[in-house]
Amino acid sequence: MKAGTLTGFAAGEDLIKEEPARAFLDDVAAVFGPGEPKLWSEVIASRLAERWPETYDGWSATDLGSQLGRHGIRTIQVWGQTPEGAGANRKGIALEAVMEALAGGGEGPVGR
Known about the structure:
The protein is of the alpha+beta class. The protein has five helices and three strands; from the N terminus they run αβαααββα. α1 runs antiparallel to α5 (95-103) and α2 (41-51) crosses α4 (61-70). The longest helix has 11 residues, at 41-51. The relative contact order is 0.20.
């Protein structure tokens, strides 16, 4: 090896690329669209996985509910429509609850 040709860790370079933790409640709030004060948990989990697959891929409505519970947010019954247009009552959350948790400083990084 030639002198002065060290690279990587041997040259003092940091080879570990660290990504900041996702701000879970901010992410949840971001998937609510205009005119959507409440969403089903399954819709939120799907939108999170679509938008940030590296963090949320594979999450279920149950995973979402568990993480929301760590931030003091409980699921409620939410009336909505299926893609086929049928009305249904399923577990979900209100955007207002997420915003209240954010205002109360209950934010933390994503973890299961």
